[in-house]
Amino acid sequence: MAVKFGVGQSVTRKEDDPLIRGKGRYTDDHAPAGSLHALVLRSPHAHATFTINTSLAKSKPGVAAILTAADVAELCGLPCLFQLPANPFKSPPYPILAKDKVFHVGDAVAFVVADTLDHARDAIEAIDVKWSPLPAAIGVANAVKPGAPLMRPEYPNNVLFDESVGNRAKAEAAFKGAHAVAEISIVNPRVVTNFMEPRGAVAEYDAKADHLTMTIGSQGSHRIRDILCQNILKIPADKMRVIAKDVGGGFGTRLFPYREYALAAFAARKLKKNVKWIADRSDHFVGDAQGRDNITTARMALAADGKFLGLDVDLMSDMGAYLSTFAPYIAYGGADMLPGLYDLQAFHCRVRCVFTNTVPVDAYRGAGRPEAAYVLERLVDVAARKLGMTPEAIRKKNFIPSKSLPYKTATGKVYDSGDFTAHMKRAMDVINWKEFPKRAKAAKKAGLVRGIGMSTYVEICGTMGEETANVRLDPNGEVTVLIGSQSTGQGHQTAYAQVVAEQFGLPPEKVHVIQGDTDIVKTGLGTGGSSAIPTGGVSVQKATKKLGDNLKSLAAEALETSAGDLEIRDGRIRVAGTDKAIAFADLAKKANDPSKLTGTDKFTQADGTYPNGTHIAEVEIDPATGVTKIVNYVIVDDFGVTLNPLLLAGQVHGGVTQGIGQALMEQATYDKDGQLVTGTFMDYALPRAADAPAFHFETHNVPCVTNPLGVKGAGEAGSIGSCPAVMNAISEALWREFKVDHIDMPATAERVWMAIDASRRG
User: Fold this and answer.
1) pLDDT tens string 271-282
2) For residues 138 and 674, what is the distance between their CA atoms, to the nearest angstrom?
3) What three-state secondary structure class fits 291?
4) What is the 3-state secondary structure (H, E, C) of 171-223?
5) d(CA 503, CA 372)
6) What is the pLDDT of residues 80-102, one digit of tens each?
7) d(CA 262, CA 75)
8) CA 469, CA 303: separation in Å to the nearest integer?
9) pLDDT per residue as tens digits for the range 722-736
10) Segment (H or E) for 97
11) Does residue 21 fall inside a structural domain?
12) What's the CA gap between 699 and 643, in Å, rounded?
């Protein structure tokens, strides 16, 4: 029988009440008395040399400090933490403040600290910068051309590295024996994260103890502290405490340290005063890492019966001006997932990471896996069309059969569990795939064009590393969980409470979760790569079991019985089959050894988990305007074991909506001079509620066998399956009615109309 509030129950989110009442505590809500306020002076040029004079600005009222590169010369730059395993590359400097030369619009050149924001603004305007603009390299296709503006002489053609993933010889052999070859070249456009709460940092300095307390809305306070201390400030980690309170969205982009964190810390130590910096939305557009931005050509070698013989991919990934924390891994690691759910052993991918004079790029919801799924699933539809097969038939023909699991892919990933044909069939049944021609015919009578498209996907997640959980019994009989993950809206307070409830039967209000404080929680991975539940959840489960064993040992003495005769329910330990029991609160009072009231354990997901599923989108296009409306959307996913159906649905709906945004409207666009022409919400479109359909979401779960909870990560899955499903639906409609064979994201009304118009005019 299911435990009330336990694993699998639709427990409502316990963290929502204060948030919807306006009682959340975000970074900007933290305002220590006497804090100074900081602003960043950013470059208006994408590529330029400059000189800077701050003498007049320093004389302005209220100015406490103006920092330039010369003032922070002792600080090391932002690090790139990824390195190629066999052929190491050299990272260019990523200075905390640019010196003499800038590389993108928004590059930071000065940090102004004053008693008020108005005084800081006055000082910013008084800084005298003499700019000498240089030609800019914009877009990877242009940046690698002979004669393109060269950003750094040590990187010919602006290329960081040119590497291979997979087996080139094996792939080439497959193409030599192919009956046909399907090919597609696609653009995966750059996007801006646009989480609800802009970044910020409050630095408080205790001069007597030489200690910093940093309040930062991040996805992992320990990671931020360690990089700031070890890599940039060069101070011991115990000289800094990092606190993350409520955090308004992350999506990967909050995982990294940013310049302003180091600058606030440096200024606070220098001035011996508290320093507060809060970004505005303009800062976010040109100062925070952006996402995606690949150009990819992919070819599939095909047998006459539709069997995939080999896959060859050429991927160019835009790094922007500098290497952000994990940037090169996004393309290189994402390439490992290009074989998808298909039985495909002949695989090769050429990966080039390229510098351009744009904002740096890094992890954004899915971090390489959405890019891989997008090119693969678009290519599969092209292959089906080339052979005269249906999209579902060619997928079924090539899926890895369940009997072959565990299955080692051509890139060394081991899929442990799943039933890929089953979730595709279920999604097709739900959307009534067979009856689509009738719906398309009815739409045509109304002057509209219907399209239907599917995508099947697999991703890897839960590979962040080791997470430790501490679960303790409090004097009042309630339980506190300390863990190093960080909620940015996912519902960790509720999810971890359910893991505890599964063993202790406590209601959620009696389980308290502490995250985001490096002084209270000693270690932590943070949250990223859909790791919180696959790794953190298992840690909590194991720590709760240890605490339970300790409590049974204590109760056995109090109840004069053996621990093996005891059971834990509803915050009490009782002798099984009797009324003889002791409450948690009473047991806490009897413990002479405090360690008996604590359980600590850790977990590492050795090979990750592999969530997978099928998305099917049905769209309606108005050929007179190009407007595309999603009229039906079905998702059938395999997440192993569902911890909380409500939380899971929220994660999937959010991820799919982000994917719809990228498919239909989002794109960060730079002009030839490197100006971000979509730098405000007047120019950059985000999906609204009306842009998302009423989703049908269900699971066809096959428990993960490499994870003790059986769960597979879920936070990024929606963004992985959605883009190719929507674009395949649009492509199906445009090909069927107008013989338009290709369109790139975002499929805006203008682009769709232009494609239709060009087809009509021949």
Assistant:
1) 999 999 999 999
2) 6
3) strand
4) HHHHHHCCCEEEEEEEEEEEECCCCCCCCEEEEEEECCCCEEEEEECCCCHHH
5) 39
6) 999 999 999 999 999 999 999 99
7) 8
8) 51
9) 999 999 999 999 999
10) none
11) no
12) 12
Nearest CA to 252 out of 336, 323, 192 is that of 192
For residue 602, is pLDDT > 80? Answer: yes
Q: Directed axis angle between helix 369-387 and helix 717-738, to 10°? A: 30
> What range defines the domain where residue 220 resides?
32-134+196-249+254-287
Least confident of 2-16, 226-240, 688-702, 733-747: 2-16
* CB distance 713 to 461 below 8 Å: yes
Q: What is the pTM of this model?
A: 0.97
Average pLDDT value for residue range 23-48: 97
pLDDT of residue 207: 97
Phi, psi of 728 (to 5 degrees): -65, -35
Over the range 100-134, which residues count as b (16 or more CB within 10 Å of their CB) and which as e?
A: ebbbbbbbbbbbbbbbeeebbebbbebbebeeeeb
Q: What's the pLDDT tens digit per position in 115-125?
A: 999 999 999 99
Give the residue-averaged pLDDT of 412-433. Answer: 98
Whether the CB-CB separation of 139 and 318 falls below 8 Å is answered with yes
* CATH number of the domain residue 307 falls in: 3.30.365.10
Tokens 């369109």 belong to residue: 743
Domain count within the chain: 4
Round to whole Å and give the CA distance between 574 and 556.
9
Residues 244, 306: one domain? no
pLDDT over 70 at 1, yes or no: no
Would residue 8 count as lying in a domain? Answer: no
Distance CA 159, CA 156 (A): 6
Q: Are residues 322 and 470 in the same domain?
A: no
Instruction: List 421's β-bridge partners, or say none.
Output: none
- Comparing CA positions, the residue from 296, 463, 453, 308 lying closest to residue 371 is 296
Return all residues near 113 (Cβ < 8 A) that are at least 6 apart. Answer: 36, 37, 38, 63, 64, 65, 66, 67, 120, 267, 271, 275
The answer on 306 and 260 residing in a single domain is no
pLDDT (average), residues 56-73: 98
Q: 754 and 642 in one domain?
A: yes
Instruction: Please compute the mean of the pLDDT values over residues 487-512 and round it to a whole number.
Output: 96
